[in-house]
Amino acid sequence: MAKFKGVREAFAAALTDLAVEGKDVYGVFPDSLSAMRAIAFGEKFPERYVECGIAEQCAVDVAAGMATTGAIPFVGSYAGFLTMRAGEQMRTFVGYTELNVKFAGFNAGCMGGEREGVTHQFYEDIAFVSSLPNFKIFTPADGNQMYHAVKIAADIVGPVYLRGGSGKEPTVFPEDAPFSPDGITVCKDYGTDAVILSCGHVLDRVIAAADLLKAQGINVTAADINILYGDNPAKILEVMAKTNLVVTVEDHNINGGLGSYISRLATENRPVRVKRIALEDYSESGAAKDLGDKEGFSPENICAVVAKTLGK
Amino acid sequence: METAALQKVARRVRFEAVRMIYEGKEGHPGPALSCADIVATLYFDVMNIRPDQPDWEDRDRFILSKGHGCPIWYATLNERGYNNPKVEHFHLRELGSIFQGHPSMHSGVPGIDMTTGSLGNGIAIGAGMAYAAKAHHKDYYTYVICGDGEMQEGVTWEGVNMAKGRGLDNLVVFVDNNGFQSYKTIEFTIGQNNMADRFRAFGWHTQEINGHDVEQIKAAVTIAKATSGSPHAIICRTVKGKGLSYMENNNKWHKGVPTEEQWEITKRELGGE
Amino acid sequence: MEVNLKEMCRTVREDILTMIHAAGSGHPGGSLSSVEIMVALYFGDVMKVDAKNPDWNDRDRFILSKGHVAPVLYSVLARKGFFPVEELGTLRKFGSILQGHPHKAHTPGLECSAGSLGQGLSVANGIALAFKKLGTGQRVYCLMGDGELQEGQIWEAAMFAPQQKLDNVCAIVDYNHVQLDGTVEEIKSLDNLPARWNDFGWNVIEVDGHDVNALVHAFKLAALTKDRPSVLIAHTVKGKGVSFMEGDCNWHGNCPNAEQLAQALAEVRGATS
Amino acid sequence: MSVKKIPMRDGYGKALLELIAANPKVIALDADVAKSTRSGWVKDKFPDNFIDMGIAEQDLAGTAAGLALGGMLPFTSTYAVFMAGRAWDEIRTTICYNNLNVKIAGAHAGISVGPDGATHQALEDVAIMRVLPNMTVVCPCDAEETRKATLAFAKIDGPCYVRFGREAVPVVTDETTPFELGKARLCREGSDVAIIACGAMVYESLEAAKVLADENISAEVIDLHTVKPIDVDAVVAAAKKCGCVVTAEEHQIFGGMGSAVAECLAKNFPAPQEFIAIQDTFGESGQPQELMDAYGLNQSSIVAAAKKVIARK
Q: Are A152 and A261 in a shared domain?
């Protein structure tokens, strides 16, 4: 297994390992090879490196065309340039056609794009992809999870969207922890005063919040949601069934992401209060930690929201 | 196939295309008729295909980028033997019919290599197929028919750039240059109608022909196949609604259904042998 | 106030290097290649702007399409007096008026946010069209990178401006031949670039993008051209002025360390061109 | 009994003519489908206030942004599937991030587009637009409400999106019906179940309420035309009063009006909810009403959902 650190290198490492294993995978890049940390992949497998230039719609179309021949193309770029610039191509030529194309969208969230500023931070992607039938959405929390997610994506026949941040996110999962097929991994199980659900690279903050709350005598369950809008949310519902307060934390717009998904699961199955911590406006340039704290993802703020909502 | 026989096929698929629109009561006859000779020549002379084995992996690929012209594609596939038994009534655009308003590769029509309908994407998708052919060491060709209106979509030029950059000489693109788009003429909309200059400027091997002359279509493909190193554009001067006196160069037939009276004219002008 | 243009170019280069070093990240290569273009526009008596009144209604407009070269724009705006030069030290920091990619609401003198490539020319066309409709004589300038010409939207916009006879648009291509992943020729060739623009209906002016006086002259020529938009194809060198950055794609988005900064500043200050 | 039917897009075209007659800075842009969106009416009557951008949706959005920056008031229109799908990056980064005064109309939205098939049926556009800060999203119920929404857009500063279908749909409002952006409209009072609808589903919901009344079930019907910003007070009040909610929309189940209501309920007043929407699948060709029936977007499915959700109380 190739060595890696963070979600981007994990993506490139998994892609390289898949090619080494003899899978007919390709990396389709709209001038994003180095941003995807995939230069070594391109050098090792030049014929599997498909350069499309700064032309995201073209890249998605090219991947669709390749997939009709049995190839397994991975389109790697920034989350928004794929979902926003080439959204219609993802919808009509990959979703509707049910073609076997995989997408890896990075710089997701304000912490994913950090100092680049809003044009390179993407917090709308899940809202869009979740509205596309036939797509699966994977939101690995760290590099180790991303590596497994890419390998699993390659084995699934059909479109998969993988969401990743900057590559500098903290590692939370052990190397060999599987990418949960249930869409949920309980990380802390202190009690059922509240359930805090996390999506992607805010997981370390959610876990820290659970510990802080425990010290205050509030016992919560903290879990990572790694598959959104999956076929079988039974395990997620099981965890939600134990509590009267669910808090969601995600580096995505407050509309259309994890919080929206969980709200719908709640009203459709067992109505329970859902408090969403997410972005309500465009963010700005800055270091990831500062931005995360400002946008309400600090363990202290998560903690305060839970305590306040519980009236404690 | 002999020229006379090809012309006969083109006439028959024209009639069938208009018939399915007449029976289905909706569709785009003008854009279908302008590319009839190209589609017929590709399926009956040029392409290496097996109608009884539509998924044969070494087949030449075809994309109708101007998906709204699909009645001509449906009629040609039917005529070529892709549907077994042959389809009598297409039920175009009706609920439950395999013949969708814009072609779908999953609706059940044998021989549809790619879903289309959203304009501008055919060249980039064709480039993907052509790239995969090279990567898999296959020698099939990918043929694309584009409308001239969809040259206004930026993604067209992204695909043009990509195919040139990767040297995809196994990609052949026909531009059905009938001079009209949905609303008005190409010149009205963007001022110029110089498709060939643009493809040349982007580095493509470019030819200009009469898109209703099957001999010229055949010859252009032969020349394209003999030229390596860059993708091929064949700019076809065509007439929107070609073959029906009441439709030719009348853009009201971009979308429309013949009246009973016009259907009688259609039968006279295109029916029979 | 008479400004020594070459002196100003040196100052702007120093600003770019210093602020990217202080920020810890940024895009020096493309910023350095655009220095003379930006200095000619803002200090060469080309654009009508009022630094004391950034929202002056009658000002000419500048749209930065290649948003990642914000440092060169920030430096020129600061030196022109739109905001204090000291602000340059806050680039990309939390709470700064100088976002990593420019945003209209944050920075005085900025007309539009940028950073998602390929969109600027459409915006410039829209502003120019509004000026035509409102009967004002203002001009609109738009700086693009060569790499972003791979975005299809650029070619959509390139078709629109000639159709609308937008002679108040002047586009500039910073033709430095290098993009993020390598040279433009490797990624997707742009050969025949002047012919491509010409075939889309533009008045094409080729110019040495590091000769600030030639640039000023070219902008004046463009302003005299009636009934069609102009594009300056400015031949430049990525990373211009710093020997170890010139022509190297690794300096597209990389930050010089202290030692590299010292050497770069010495080279820039020593330049006599 | 025959119901009067008018396509919503007629309301859009009418409003544009009214706006331009009053303000010459209003300008309509279209991407080669002006006849369909009714912006063609502007072309016929006020040719100087109309621009055909050709088949180039991204350029359409970018040019509109520039026109707004230059002091005009642009109203852009094309098919919703191309507007939202192909020009999303431009709408997000150039229009919404700059909070530019660009108005956007997505025509041919929903599955009732009919025979053109799935490539032309926009079922995701509300999700796409709702997630953008600064954006107002309206899904009117008939031609008159479309007209009023379009007129209302001209009165607020900032990006707005209105979606409408292709077919002639029943008229449920008239010139005197009140309309305010961001304020849900109570169409029928009830106490057993609240049916919150938008677009053409408002009419279906009203019909469903009549059927339910025959079975002694009292249904409240709310026209939630403004999906964003959502009228929290109205949604919560209805849920409190009735104890359960059915949402009905001609859009994918994920991300649309139903999701917005779910977010609102889960946050403020958790209550059982059933979703009438497209169930995470693409459409197909067919006649509009056939498709609405086949995909469960009609009064009988609303009736069934109402009974189901009442049982969950």
A: no
Per the CB < 8 A criterion, the answer to whether C35 and C13 are in contact is: yes
Chain C partners of D61 at a C-beta cutoff of 8 Å? Answer: 122
Label the pairing between strands A49-51 and A25-29.
parallel
- Tell me whether residues A31 and C179 touch, CB distance under 8 A: yes
Contact criterion met (CB < 8 Å) for A57 and B106: no
| Chain C neighbors of B152, CB-CB under 8 A | 156, 159
Task: Give the domain-ending residue among A128, A163, A198.
Answer: A163
Identify the structural domains of chain D with CATH numbers, from first to last.
5-170 (3.40.50.970), 185-311 (3.40.50.920)
Question: In this structure, is residue A289 part of a structural domain?
Answer: yes
CB D150 within 8 A of CB D75: yes
Q: Which residues contact A51 (CB under 8 A, 6 or more apart)?
A: A29, A31, A33, B165, B166, C181, C186, C187, C188
Tokens representing residue B86 in the block: 């042959």
Strands C230-235 and D26-30 come out as: unpaired
Nearest to A118 by CA among C63, C119, C121, C92: C92
Summarised one tens digit per residue, pLDDT across range A210-251 is 999 999 999 999 999 999 998 899 999 999 999 999 999 999
Please tell me whether residues A212 and A303 are part of one structural domain: yes
| Same domain (yes/no): A26, A82 | yes
CATH code of A49's domain: 3.40.50.970
C168-186: per-residue pLDDT in tens? 999 999 998 877 676 766 6
A134 lies in some domain: yes
CA C129 – CA C142 distance, rounded (Å): 14
d(CA B156, CA D86): 13
Q: Who contacts B234 (Cβ-Cβ below 8 Å, separation ≥6)? A: B172, B173, B174, B175, B206, B207, B208, B209, B217, B220, B221, B224
The answer, yes or no, to whether residue D1 has pLDDT greater than 60, is no
For position A268, which CATH number holds?
A: 3.40.50.920
Question: What pTM was estimated for this model as a whole?
Answer: 0.84
Question: b/e for D8-21, b at 16 or more Cβ within 10 A?
Answer: bbbbbbbbbbebbe
CB contact under 8 A, C187 and A32: no
Q: What are the extents of the domains in chain B? A: 3-270
Q: Which residues of B touch C152 (CB under 8 A)?
A: 120, 153-158
Q: How confident is the model at residue B162 (pLDDT cuts 50, 70, 90)?
A: confident
Counting every residue written for chain B, the total comes to: 273
CA of D154: how far to CAs of A7, B189, C175, D103, D157, in Å? 45, 27, 41, 8, 8
The β-bridge relationship of strands D5-7 and C203-208 is unpaired
DSSP string for residues in B221-267: HHHHHT--SS-EEEEEE--TTTT-TTTTT-GGGGS----HHHHHHHH
Closest Cα of chain C to B119: distance in Å?
13
Catalytic residue numbers of D read: 57
The architecture (CATH level 2) of C5-270 comes to 3-Layer(aba) Sandwich (3.40)
Binning pLDDT at 50, 70 and 90, where does residue C273 land?
very low
- What total number of domains does chain A contain? 2
CA distance A144 to A134: 26
Give me the domain span that covers residue A294: 184-309
Residues sharing a CB contact under 8 Å with residue A65, sequence separation 6 or more, in sequence order: B114, B124, B125, B126, B127, B128, B129, B130, B131, B132, B142
* A169 located within any domain: no
Q: Is D42 within 8 Å of D174 (Cβ atoms)?
A: no
Domain B3-270 carries which CATH code? Answer: 3.40.50.970
Q: Do A92 and B161 touch (CB under 8 A)?
A: no
User: Is residue C178 within 8 Å of residue C32, measured between CB atoms?
Assistant: no
Task: Quickly list H helices, chain C.
Answer: 5-23, 28-33, 35-43, 70-80, 120-134, 152-163, 184-187, 193-199, 212-224, 258-270
Domain boundaries, chain C: 5-270
